[in-house]
Design a protein that fits this description.
It is a single chain. With 52 residues, the chain is mainly alpha-helical. It contains three helices and two strands; from the N terminus they run βαααβ. Strands 1-2 form a two-stranded parallel sheet. α1 packs across α3. It is elongated, with a radius of gyration of 13 Å. The N and C termini lie far apart (36 Å).
């Protein structure tokens, strides 16, 4: 029996900002001020990996 392999997709910083905007219901200006670690937290919740 084969194991299922989940592919994790890398996300650029710009796309991570878009995702954070929609996930946290904030404006683009607020999301652009997020630190890298905050953006990585949002991506981790969705099972994505940061590529920045």
């Amino acid at each position: 029996m084969k194991k299922l392999i989940r592919k994790t997709y890398g996300v650029s910083r710009d796309k991570a900002i878009d995702i954070a905007m929609n996930t946290n219901c904030v404006s683009r200006e607020v999301a652009e001020q997020y630190t890298d670690s905050e953006l990585k937290e949002v991506l981790q919740l969705l099972g994505l990996k940061a590529n920045f």
